[in-house]
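Sample entry follows:

:::
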Amino acid sequence: LPILNAQLGLLVVSLVNAVVAVACGALSDRIGRRAVLVPALFIYSLLFYVILQRLVAAPTTANLWQLQIVAVLLGALAGPMPAFMTEIFPVGVRSTGASLMYNLAVMLFGGLAPFINTWLVQMTGDKAAPVYYILFAAAVGLIGLSVYRGRRPCRQSQLNRRNKLRRQTAWRPYGRRDDRTCGAAFDKSARGLFNGGKNNAEEQGART
């Protein structure tokens, strides 16, 4: 196959994916992450299997471009996936958890892909054997999406109580409490001095 045709198809698909990713990310905000991820992952795996078999049987530019067009569904995955990965974790560990999960997945599935695909071709003698690795990775993703239940959203009353507690434990209320304590102590001392002076004046008047 001509390399120029492959590069041209890759360029067009990459430009289309830039738009598809944004559109599918916005769609997932409305209908949910899994509502976009699950169909895209399932359809991508099915079409990739069928068209790769066709490309291996008849390696033409048309079949190659059809296989590259299937990669548009990767844009549908790339849109909601970053938001989905971060929403899995609590806010306090969201950055660390998402970065670890992403890098481990890339290391295991992406880093080992050349080795595993070469081994599959050598063991089976089938040039389309790498599709089985794609199906395995897709199955792992679908299982993970199916068992994930999502984080329970906080109710408005819980948020209000949490915000009220934060305001009560902030530095300002402590400052006001200290001020009130110091002011009360000052008032008590002042009243003592005033009462003491008043009593002394009454005693002197009685003596005279």
Q: What stands out?
A: Residues 173-190 have pLDDT under 50 and may be disordered.
